[in-house]
Amino acid sequence: MLTVEIRAEPAPGVALAVPVRLGQVPPQWAGAAAVEAFSGEARAACEIVGGARRVLLVGVGDHPDLLALEEAGALAAARWLRVAQVAVDLRGWTKKQACAWLTGMWQRAWRYESLRTKPLDDAPQLARVDAVTDDDGFGKAWARQQAVLTGAAFARDLVTEPSNTLTPAGFVVRLERLRAAGVSVEVLEGAALIDVPLSGLIAVGQGSVNSPRLAVLRWPGAHEAPPVAFVGKGITFDTGGICIKPAEGMWEMRADMAGAAACVGAMLALALRGSPAPAMAVLALAENAIGGSAYRPGDVLTHASGTTVEVVDTDAEGRLVLMDALAWAAAQEPAAIVDLATLTGCVVVALGHEMAGMFDNDTSLAASVAAAGAAVGERVWRLPIDESHRRELDSDIADLRHCSPERQQPDACQAAAFLREFVGVTPWVHLDIAGTENHEKADDRFAAGATGFGVRLLDRLVADRYEDPHRV
Protein backbone atom coordinates (compact mmCIF):
# COMPACT_ATOMS: atom_id res chain seq x y z
CA MET A 1 0.00 0.00 0.00
CA LEU A 2 0.97 3.58 -0.58
CA THR A 3 2.52 5.43 2.39
CA VAL A 4 1.43 9.06 2.75
CA GLU A 5 3.55 11.51 4.74
CA ILE A 6 2.34 15.02 5.55
CA ARG A 7 4.83 17.85 5.06
CA ALA A 8 4.83 21.63 5.09
CA GLU A 9 7.35 21.84 2.23
CA PRO A 10 8.44 19.34 -0.45
CA ALA A 11 11.76 17.67 0.27
CA PRO A 12 14.63 18.75 -1.99
CA GLY A 13 14.96 16.78 -5.22
CA VAL A 14 11.75 14.78 -4.83
CA ALA A 15 9.57 14.68 -7.94
CA LEU A 16 6.62 17.04 -7.52
CA ALA A 17 3.05 16.79 -8.83
CA VAL A 18 0.98 19.98 -8.94
CA PRO A 19 -2.80 20.17 -9.47
CA VAL A 20 -3.57 23.06 -11.84
CA ARG A 21 -6.93 24.75 -12.37
CA LEU A 22 -7.81 25.86 -15.87
CA GLY A 23 -5.87 29.00 -16.78
CA GLN A 24 -3.95 29.08 -13.50
CA VAL A 25 -0.56 27.57 -14.34
CA PRO A 26 1.95 28.70 -11.67
CA PRO A 27 4.22 31.39 -13.13
CA GLN A 28 7.47 29.47 -12.59
CA TRP A 29 6.27 26.80 -15.03
CA ALA A 30 4.14 28.91 -17.36
CA GLY A 31 6.75 29.03 -20.14
CA ALA A 32 7.29 25.27 -20.25
CA ALA A 33 3.53 24.68 -20.06
CA ALA A 34 2.91 27.05 -22.98
CA VAL A 35 5.35 25.08 -25.13
CA GLU A 36 3.27 21.96 -24.45
CA ALA A 37 -0.02 23.87 -24.94
CA PHE A 38 -1.01 22.98 -21.39
CA SER A 39 -3.34 25.33 -19.56
CA GLY A 40 -4.92 23.12 -16.90
CA GLU A 41 -7.58 21.28 -18.87
CA ALA A 42 -9.11 18.30 -17.08
CA ARG A 43 -7.33 14.99 -17.84
CA ALA A 44 -4.30 16.79 -19.29
CA ALA A 45 -0.76 16.60 -17.94
CA CYS A 46 2.54 18.30 -18.63
CA GLU A 47 5.86 16.93 -17.36
CA ILE A 48 8.73 19.35 -16.90
CA VAL A 49 12.16 17.79 -16.65
CA GLY A 50 15.18 19.85 -15.67
CA GLY A 51 16.18 22.12 -12.85
CA ALA A 52 16.18 20.96 -9.25
CA ARG A 53 13.36 18.42 -9.60
CA ARG A 54 10.95 16.75 -12.02
CA VAL A 55 7.55 18.43 -12.07
CA LEU A 56 4.23 17.06 -13.30
CA LEU A 57 1.45 19.59 -13.85
CA VAL A 58 -1.96 17.90 -13.84
CA GLY A 59 -5.01 19.73 -15.11
CA VAL A 60 -8.22 19.58 -13.10
CA GLY A 61 -10.40 21.90 -15.17
CA ASP A 62 -12.25 25.04 -14.12
CA HIS A 63 -14.36 23.99 -11.13
CA PRO A 64 -13.34 20.43 -10.26
CA ASP A 65 -15.53 18.35 -7.96
CA LEU A 66 -14.06 15.72 -5.66
CA LEU A 67 -14.35 12.91 -8.20
CA ALA A 68 -12.53 15.03 -10.81
CA LEU A 69 -9.72 15.53 -8.30
CA GLU A 70 -9.61 11.78 -7.68
CA GLU A 71 -9.23 11.23 -11.42
CA ALA A 72 -6.41 13.78 -11.55
CA GLY A 73 -4.63 12.11 -8.64
CA ALA A 74 -4.96 8.75 -10.34
CA LEU A 75 -3.52 10.20 -13.54
CA ALA A 76 -0.51 11.53 -11.61
CA ALA A 77 0.09 8.11 -10.06
CA ALA A 78 -0.26 6.40 -13.44
CA ARG A 79 2.37 8.71 -14.97
CA TRP A 80 4.80 8.20 -12.10
CA LEU A 81 4.27 4.59 -11.08
CA ARG A 82 7.97 3.89 -11.63
CA VAL A 83 9.08 6.67 -9.29
CA ALA A 84 9.48 5.37 -5.75
CA GLN A 85 8.72 8.64 -3.94
CA VAL A 86 6.86 11.72 -5.10
CA ALA A 87 5.45 14.85 -3.49
CA VAL A 88 2.14 16.57 -4.22
CA ASP A 89 1.68 20.29 -3.69
CA LEU A 90 -1.79 20.53 -2.12
CA ARG A 91 -1.36 23.97 -0.60
CA GLY A 92 -4.39 26.12 -1.27
CA TRP A 93 -6.74 23.15 -1.53
CA THR A 94 -9.23 22.19 1.19
CA LYS A 95 -8.72 19.03 3.19
CA LYS A 96 -11.57 17.33 1.33
CA GLN A 97 -10.02 18.24 -2.00
CA ALA A 98 -6.58 17.11 -0.87
CA CYS A 99 -8.00 13.80 0.37
CA ALA A 100 -9.75 13.29 -2.97
CA TRP A 101 -6.49 13.78 -4.88
CA LEU A 102 -4.61 11.33 -2.65
CA THR A 103 -7.47 8.85 -2.89
CA GLY A 104 -6.99 8.76 -6.64
CA MET A 105 -3.27 8.18 -6.23
CA TRP A 106 -3.80 5.48 -3.60
CA GLN A 107 -6.35 3.62 -5.72
CA ARG A 108 -4.23 3.77 -8.88
CA ALA A 109 -1.00 2.75 -7.14
CA TRP A 110 -2.51 -0.44 -5.66
CA ARG A 111 -0.86 -3.65 -6.83
CA TYR A 112 -0.83 -7.28 -5.74
CA GLU A 113 2.71 -8.55 -5.21
CA SER A 114 2.30 -11.21 -2.53
CA LEU A 115 3.05 -14.13 -4.86
CA ARG A 116 5.68 -12.60 -7.12
CA THR A 117 9.20 -13.85 -6.36
CA LYS A 118 11.02 -12.07 -9.19
CA PRO A 119 10.28 -8.39 -9.84
CA LEU A 120 9.43 -7.36 -13.37
CA ASP A 121 11.79 -4.98 -15.12
CA ASP A 122 9.01 -2.41 -15.52
CA ALA A 123 7.26 -3.15 -12.23
CA PRO A 124 5.61 -0.20 -10.46
CA GLN A 125 7.73 1.27 -7.67
CA LEU A 126 5.58 4.10 -6.30
CA ALA A 127 5.48 3.51 -2.56
CA ARG A 128 5.45 6.93 -0.88
CA VAL A 129 3.68 10.24 -1.42
CA ASP A 130 4.54 13.37 0.52
CA ALA A 131 1.39 15.46 0.88
CA VAL A 132 2.45 19.10 1.08
CA THR A 133 -0.38 21.01 2.72
CA ASP A 134 -1.06 24.14 4.77
CA ASP A 135 -4.37 22.89 6.21
CA ASP A 136 -3.98 22.03 9.90
CA GLY A 137 -7.02 19.74 9.79
CA PHE A 138 -5.73 17.63 6.94
CA GLY A 139 -4.08 14.95 9.09
CA LYS A 140 -7.33 13.97 10.81
CA ALA A 141 -9.27 14.01 7.55
CA TRP A 142 -6.70 11.85 5.81
CA ALA A 143 -6.59 9.34 8.67
CA ARG A 144 -10.32 8.78 8.23
CA GLN A 145 -10.03 8.40 4.47
CA GLN A 146 -7.02 6.13 4.80
CA ALA A 147 -9.10 3.77 6.96
CA VAL A 148 -11.63 3.44 4.13
CA LEU A 149 -8.94 2.94 1.51
CA THR A 150 -7.26 0.30 3.68
CA GLY A 151 -10.57 -1.57 3.69
CA ALA A 152 -10.80 -1.25 -0.09
CA ALA A 153 -7.22 -2.48 -0.54
CA PHE A 154 -7.93 -5.46 1.71
CA ALA A 155 -10.95 -6.35 -0.42
CA ARG A 156 -8.87 -6.05 -3.60
CA ASP A 157 -6.24 -8.38 -2.18
CA LEU A 158 -8.92 -10.93 -1.28
CA VAL A 159 -10.44 -10.84 -4.75
CA THR A 160 -7.01 -11.28 -6.33
CA GLU A 161 -5.84 -14.18 -4.16
CA PRO A 162 -5.98 -17.53 -6.00
CA SER A 163 -8.58 -20.09 -5.04
CA ASN A 164 -6.13 -22.80 -4.00
CA THR A 165 -5.25 -20.67 -0.96
CA LEU A 166 -8.42 -18.61 -0.58
CA THR A 167 -10.71 -21.56 0.06
CA PRO A 168 -13.69 -21.06 2.39
CA ALA A 169 -11.40 -22.05 5.27
CA GLY A 170 -8.67 -19.75 3.98
CA PHE A 171 -11.13 -16.88 3.75
CA VAL A 172 -12.01 -17.36 7.42
CA VAL A 173 -8.31 -17.19 8.32
CA ARG A 174 -8.06 -13.81 6.57
CA LEU A 175 -10.79 -12.51 8.88
CA GLU A 176 -8.33 -12.52 11.79
CA ARG A 177 -7.33 -9.05 10.65
CA LEU A 178 -10.83 -7.85 11.50
CA ARG A 179 -10.68 -9.39 14.95
CA ALA A 180 -7.53 -7.38 15.58
CA ALA A 181 -9.48 -4.23 14.64
CA GLY A 182 -12.29 -4.96 17.09
CA VAL A 183 -14.75 -6.82 14.85
CA SER A 184 -16.17 -10.05 16.28
CA VAL A 185 -16.15 -13.09 13.98
CA GLU A 186 -18.49 -16.07 14.29
CA VAL A 187 -18.17 -19.02 11.91
CA LEU A 188 -20.71 -21.78 11.28
CA GLU A 189 -19.52 -24.96 9.58
CA GLY A 190 -20.22 -28.68 9.47
CA ALA A 191 -23.03 -29.77 11.75
CA ALA A 192 -23.84 -26.17 12.64
CA LEU A 193 -24.93 -25.56 9.03
CA ILE A 194 -27.13 -28.64 9.10
CA ASP A 195 -28.77 -27.65 12.37
CA VAL A 196 -30.23 -24.43 10.92
CA PRO A 197 -30.37 -25.79 8.12
CA LEU A 198 -28.54 -23.65 5.57
CA SER A 199 -29.64 -25.85 2.69
CA GLY A 200 -28.50 -23.65 -0.18
CA LEU A 201 -25.01 -23.15 1.21
CA ILE A 202 -24.71 -26.86 2.00
CA ALA A 203 -25.88 -27.91 -1.47
CA VAL A 204 -23.57 -25.57 -3.36
CA GLY A 205 -20.54 -26.55 -1.27
CA GLN A 206 -21.10 -30.29 -0.95
CA GLY A 207 -19.33 -31.22 -4.19
CA SER A 208 -16.00 -29.79 -2.99
CA VAL A 209 -13.42 -31.12 -0.56
CA ASN A 210 -13.29 -27.52 0.74
CA SER A 211 -16.39 -27.42 2.92
CA PRO A 212 -18.64 -24.33 3.11
CA ARG A 213 -18.90 -21.83 5.95
CA LEU A 214 -21.15 -18.99 7.04
CA ALA A 215 -19.14 -16.17 8.61
CA VAL A 216 -20.89 -13.49 10.67
CA LEU A 217 -18.98 -10.27 11.46
CA ARG A 218 -20.18 -7.70 13.99
CA TRP A 219 -19.01 -4.15 14.71
CA PRO A 220 -20.67 -2.82 17.89
CA GLY A 221 -20.41 0.88 17.16
CA ALA A 222 -21.47 3.29 19.89
CA HIS A 223 -25.21 3.65 19.28
CA GLU A 224 -27.97 1.57 20.83
CA ALA A 225 -29.55 0.82 17.48
CA PRO A 226 -30.16 -2.14 15.15
CA PRO A 227 -27.13 -2.76 12.92
CA VAL A 228 -27.08 -2.21 9.20
CA ALA A 229 -26.35 -5.61 7.64
CA PHE A 230 -24.11 -6.35 4.67
CA VAL A 231 -24.53 -9.72 2.96
CA GLY A 232 -21.90 -11.05 0.57
CA LYS A 233 -21.70 -13.85 -1.95
CA GLY A 234 -18.42 -15.64 -1.24
CA ILE A 235 -17.98 -18.34 -3.90
CA THR A 236 -14.23 -18.81 -3.68
CA PHE A 237 -14.25 -20.66 -7.00
CA ASP A 238 -17.09 -21.38 -9.38
CA THR A 239 -16.81 -24.21 -11.87
CA GLY A 240 -20.52 -23.97 -12.56
CA GLY A 241 -21.02 -27.34 -10.90
CA ILE A 242 -22.61 -30.06 -13.03
CA CYS A 243 -23.79 -27.28 -15.41
CA ILE A 244 -20.10 -26.62 -15.97
CA LYS A 245 -18.81 -23.34 -17.33
CA PRO A 246 -16.78 -23.14 -20.56
CA ALA A 247 -13.04 -23.40 -19.96
CA GLU A 248 -12.39 -20.02 -21.57
CA GLY A 249 -12.21 -17.41 -18.86
CA MET A 250 -12.97 -19.85 -16.03
CA TRP A 251 -9.81 -18.76 -14.26
CA GLU A 252 -11.59 -15.47 -13.52
CA MET A 253 -14.00 -17.34 -11.26
CA ARG A 254 -11.59 -16.94 -8.37
CA ALA A 255 -13.20 -13.49 -8.11
CA ASP A 256 -16.71 -14.85 -7.55
CA MET A 257 -16.34 -13.88 -3.89
CA ALA A 258 -16.00 -10.16 -4.63
CA GLY A 259 -19.30 -9.41 -2.89
CA ALA A 260 -18.11 -11.00 0.35
CA ALA A 261 -14.75 -9.24 -0.02
CA ALA A 262 -16.50 -5.87 -0.32
CA CYS A 263 -18.46 -6.57 2.87
CA VAL A 264 -15.25 -7.49 4.69
CA GLY A 265 -13.49 -4.36 3.44
CA ALA A 266 -16.38 -2.17 4.54
CA MET A 267 -16.43 -3.72 8.02
CA LEU A 268 -12.68 -3.16 8.33
CA ALA A 269 -13.10 0.46 7.22
CA LEU A 270 -15.83 1.10 9.80
CA ALA A 271 -13.69 -0.43 12.55
CA LEU A 272 -10.49 1.40 11.62
CA ARG A 273 -12.21 4.78 11.61
CA GLY A 274 -14.25 4.00 14.72
CA SER A 275 -17.70 4.42 13.19
CA PRO A 276 -20.40 4.96 15.85
CA ALA A 277 -22.93 2.97 13.80
CA PRO A 278 -23.44 -0.74 14.61
CA ALA A 279 -22.92 -2.98 11.59
CA MET A 280 -22.79 -6.65 10.73
CA ALA A 281 -21.82 -8.72 7.71
CA VAL A 282 -22.98 -12.21 6.75
CA LEU A 283 -20.71 -14.02 4.31
CA ALA A 284 -21.78 -17.18 2.46
CA LEU A 285 -18.50 -18.95 1.70
CA ALA A 286 -18.40 -22.02 -0.56
CA GLU A 287 -16.66 -23.58 -3.54
CA ASN A 288 -18.96 -24.67 -6.37
CA ALA A 289 -17.22 -27.79 -7.61
CA ILE A 290 -17.96 -31.04 -9.45
CA GLY A 291 -17.87 -34.40 -7.69
CA GLY A 292 -19.88 -37.45 -6.84
CA SER A 293 -21.64 -35.57 -4.05
CA ALA A 294 -22.32 -32.41 -6.08
CA TYR A 295 -25.88 -31.10 -6.13
CA ARG A 296 -27.84 -31.60 -9.34
CA PRO A 297 -30.31 -29.79 -11.59
CA GLY A 298 -33.73 -30.94 -10.49
CA ASP A 299 -32.86 -31.29 -6.80
CA VAL A 300 -35.28 -29.72 -4.34
CA LEU A 301 -33.88 -27.93 -1.29
CA THR A 302 -35.82 -27.12 1.84
CA HIS A 303 -35.00 -23.69 3.26
CA ALA A 304 -34.94 -23.11 7.02
CA SER A 305 -38.28 -21.32 6.68
CA GLY A 306 -39.83 -24.43 5.19
CA THR A 307 -39.89 -23.02 1.65
CA THR A 308 -38.96 -25.63 -0.96
CA VAL A 309 -36.73 -24.57 -3.86
CA GLU A 310 -36.24 -26.46 -7.12
CA VAL A 311 -32.71 -26.25 -8.52
CA VAL A 312 -32.66 -25.56 -12.25
CA ASP A 313 -29.06 -24.61 -13.04
CA THR A 314 -26.12 -25.38 -10.75
CA ASP A 315 -24.26 -22.43 -12.31
CA ALA A 316 -26.83 -20.11 -10.71
CA GLU A 317 -25.42 -21.03 -7.32
CA GLY A 318 -25.02 -17.49 -6.00
CA ARG A 319 -28.68 -16.96 -5.29
CA LEU A 320 -28.85 -20.25 -3.39
CA VAL A 321 -26.12 -19.29 -0.93
CA LEU A 322 -27.53 -15.78 -0.68
CA MET A 323 -31.02 -17.02 0.22
CA ASP A 324 -29.51 -18.51 3.38
CA ALA A 325 -27.33 -15.52 4.19
CA LEU A 326 -30.16 -13.04 3.61
CA ALA A 327 -32.59 -15.00 5.77
CA TRP A 328 -29.94 -15.27 8.49
CA ALA A 329 -29.34 -11.52 8.38
CA ALA A 330 -33.07 -10.71 8.34
CA ALA A 331 -33.61 -12.86 11.44
CA GLN A 332 -31.27 -10.51 13.35
CA GLU A 333 -33.76 -7.65 12.77
CA PRO A 334 -31.26 -5.21 11.27
CA ALA A 335 -32.07 -1.65 10.27
CA ALA A 336 -31.54 -2.62 6.64
CA ILE A 337 -29.80 -5.19 4.45
CA VAL A 338 -27.52 -4.49 1.50
CA ASP A 339 -26.22 -7.53 -0.36
CA LEU A 340 -23.46 -7.57 -2.94
CA ALA A 341 -22.80 -10.35 -5.42
CA THR A 342 -21.15 -11.05 -8.75
CA LEU A 343 -24.41 -12.67 -9.70
CA THR A 344 -25.32 -12.48 -13.38
CA GLY A 345 -23.73 -11.90 -16.76
CA CYS A 346 -26.94 -10.17 -17.83
CA VAL A 347 -26.23 -7.13 -15.69
CA VAL A 348 -22.93 -6.69 -17.53
CA VAL A 349 -24.79 -6.79 -20.85
CA ALA A 350 -27.20 -4.16 -19.55
CA LEU A 351 -24.82 -1.81 -17.74
CA GLY A 352 -21.28 -2.66 -18.85
CA HIS A 353 -18.36 -2.36 -16.47
CA GLU A 354 -19.01 1.09 -15.01
CA MET A 355 -22.22 0.53 -13.04
CA ALA A 356 -23.71 -2.12 -10.78
CA GLY A 357 -27.33 -3.17 -11.04
CA MET A 358 -29.48 -2.21 -8.05
CA PHE A 359 -32.72 -3.89 -6.99
CA ASP A 360 -34.70 -3.15 -3.85
CA ASN A 361 -37.89 -3.31 -1.83
CA ASP A 362 -37.47 0.14 -0.27
CA THR A 363 -37.29 3.38 -2.24
CA SER A 364 -35.68 5.41 0.54
CA LEU A 365 -32.87 2.92 1.11
CA ALA A 366 -32.30 2.60 -2.63
CA ALA A 367 -31.99 6.38 -2.96
CA SER A 368 -29.42 6.44 -0.15
CA VAL A 369 -27.40 3.64 -1.74
CA ALA A 370 -27.44 5.36 -5.12
CA ALA A 371 -26.37 8.68 -3.57
CA ALA A 372 -23.54 7.02 -1.66
CA GLY A 373 -22.31 5.32 -4.83
CA ALA A 374 -22.45 8.53 -6.83
CA ALA A 375 -20.47 10.38 -4.15
CA VAL A 376 -17.55 7.95 -4.25
CA GLY A 377 -17.62 7.03 -7.94
CA GLU A 378 -19.12 3.55 -7.45
CA ARG A 379 -22.25 4.11 -9.48
CA VAL A 380 -25.37 1.96 -9.49
CA TRP A 381 -28.48 1.88 -11.68
CA ARG A 382 -31.87 0.94 -10.33
CA LEU A 383 -33.48 -1.99 -12.16
CA PRO A 384 -36.97 -3.44 -11.74
CA ILE A 385 -38.37 -6.53 -10.06
CA ASP A 386 -41.60 -7.05 -11.93
CA GLU A 387 -44.26 -9.55 -10.95
CA SER A 388 -43.57 -11.32 -14.23
CA HIS A 389 -40.04 -12.03 -13.02
CA ARG A 390 -41.46 -13.74 -9.94
CA ARG A 391 -44.02 -15.72 -11.97
CA GLU A 392 -41.22 -17.16 -14.08
CA LEU A 393 -39.92 -18.80 -10.89
CA ASP A 394 -43.07 -20.83 -10.33
CA SER A 395 -42.25 -24.54 -10.01
CA ASP A 396 -44.33 -27.60 -10.82
CA ILE A 397 -42.90 -29.58 -7.88
CA ALA A 398 -41.79 -27.03 -5.26
CA ASP A 399 -42.73 -23.63 -3.86
CA LEU A 400 -40.46 -21.92 -6.38
CA ARG A 401 -37.46 -22.57 -8.57
CA HIS A 402 -34.33 -20.51 -8.26
CA CYS A 403 -34.10 -19.50 -11.92
CA SER A 404 -36.08 -19.93 -15.10
CA PRO A 405 -35.31 -22.90 -17.39
CA GLU A 406 -36.23 -20.79 -20.42
CA ARG A 407 -32.88 -18.99 -20.52
CA GLN A 408 -29.36 -20.34 -20.75
CA GLN A 409 -28.22 -17.36 -18.68
CA PRO A 410 -30.51 -16.58 -15.74
CA ASP A 411 -31.31 -12.91 -15.82
CA ALA A 412 -30.60 -10.36 -13.13
CA CYS A 413 -34.24 -9.43 -12.54
CA GLN A 414 -35.25 -13.04 -11.89
CA ALA A 415 -32.33 -13.41 -9.49
CA ALA A 416 -33.47 -10.35 -7.56
CA ALA A 417 -37.07 -11.62 -7.50
CA PHE A 418 -35.80 -14.88 -5.99
CA LEU A 419 -33.68 -13.13 -3.35
CA ARG A 420 -36.57 -10.87 -2.34
CA GLU A 421 -38.44 -13.95 -1.13
CA PHE A 422 -35.99 -14.33 1.78
CA VAL A 423 -35.70 -10.83 3.27
CA GLY A 424 -39.25 -10.48 4.58
CA VAL A 425 -40.17 -6.90 5.45
CA THR A 426 -36.61 -5.75 6.15
CA PRO A 427 -35.57 -2.79 3.94
CA TRP A 428 -33.28 -4.38 1.37
CA VAL A 429 -31.07 -3.49 -1.58
CA HIS A 430 -29.37 -6.04 -3.82
CA LEU A 431 -26.31 -4.93 -5.80
CA ASP A 432 -25.30 -7.12 -8.73
CA ILE A 433 -21.66 -6.09 -9.06
CA ALA A 434 -20.72 -8.45 -11.89
CA GLY A 435 -18.51 -6.47 -14.28
CA THR A 436 -17.54 -3.78 -11.79
CA GLU A 437 -15.39 -5.93 -9.52
CA ASN A 438 -12.46 -6.03 -11.95
CA HIS A 439 -10.69 -3.86 -14.53
CA GLU A 440 -9.11 -5.92 -17.27
CA LYS A 441 -6.54 -3.32 -18.32
CA ALA A 442 -4.81 -0.48 -16.50
CA ASP A 443 -5.35 3.08 -17.66
CA ASP A 444 -4.97 6.61 -16.29
CA ARG A 445 -7.83 6.05 -13.83
CA PHE A 446 -7.62 2.44 -12.71
CA ALA A 447 -5.02 -0.18 -11.98
CA ALA A 448 -5.59 -3.51 -13.69
CA GLY A 449 -7.32 -6.11 -11.56
CA ALA A 450 -9.66 -6.03 -8.60
CA THR A 451 -11.41 -2.74 -7.85
CA GLY A 452 -12.82 -3.29 -4.35
CA PHE A 453 -16.15 -2.02 -5.70
CA GLY A 454 -18.65 -1.62 -2.90
CA VAL A 455 -16.34 -0.90 0.03
CA ARG A 456 -16.42 2.86 -0.29
CA LEU A 457 -20.11 2.81 -1.21
CA LEU A 458 -21.06 0.88 1.94
CA ASP A 459 -18.86 3.07 4.13
CA ARG A 460 -20.42 6.22 2.70
CA LEU A 461 -23.92 4.78 3.12
CA VAL A 462 -23.26 4.14 6.80
CA ALA A 463 -21.73 7.59 7.28
CA ASP A 464 -24.62 9.39 5.60
CA ARG A 465 -27.58 7.35 6.82
CA TYR A 466 -26.74 5.54 10.07
CA GLU A 467 -24.10 7.42 12.03
CA ASP A 468 -26.52 10.06 13.29
CA PRO A 469 -28.91 8.11 15.57
CA HIS A 470 -31.55 10.82 15.21
CA ARG A 471 -31.85 10.23 11.49
CA VAL A 472 -32.64 6.51 11.60
The appropriate CATH architecture of the largest domain is 3-Layer(aba) Sandwich
Q: In DSSP terms, counting alpha (H) and pi (I) runs of 4 or more, how many helices?
A: 15
Count of β-strands: 19
CATH structural fold name of the largest domain: Aminopeptidase
Terminal CA distance reads 35 Å
Low confidence ranges = none
Can you tell me the number of structural domains?
Answer: 2
Strand count, sense and barrel status of the largest sheet are: 8 strands, mixed
- State the strand order across the main sheet: 7-8-10-9-13-17-14-15
Which range does the strand content fall in? 15-25%
Q: CATH homologous superfamily of the largest domain?
A: Zn peptidases
Question: What structural keywords apply?
Answer:
Aminopeptidase, 15 helices, 2 domains, Leucine Aminopeptidase, subunit E, domain 1, six-stranded mixed sheet, 472 residues, alpha/beta, eight-stranded mixed sheet
Describe the structure.
By secondary structure, the protein is α/β, with parallel strands linked by helices. The strands form four sheets. The protein has an eight-stranded mixed β-sheet with strand order 7-8-10-9-13-17-14-15, sandwiched between helices. 33% of the residues lie in helices and 21% in strands. Strand 5, helix 3 and strand 6 form a beta-alpha-beta unit. The mean pLDDT is 95. The chain has two domains: 131 residues, Leucine Aminopeptidase, subunit E, domain 1 (3-Layer(aba) Sandwich); 318 residues, Zn peptidases (Aminopeptidase, 3-Layer(aba) Sandwich). It is built from 15 helices and 19 strands. Helix 9 crosses helix 15. The radius of gyration is 23 Å and the shape is elongated.
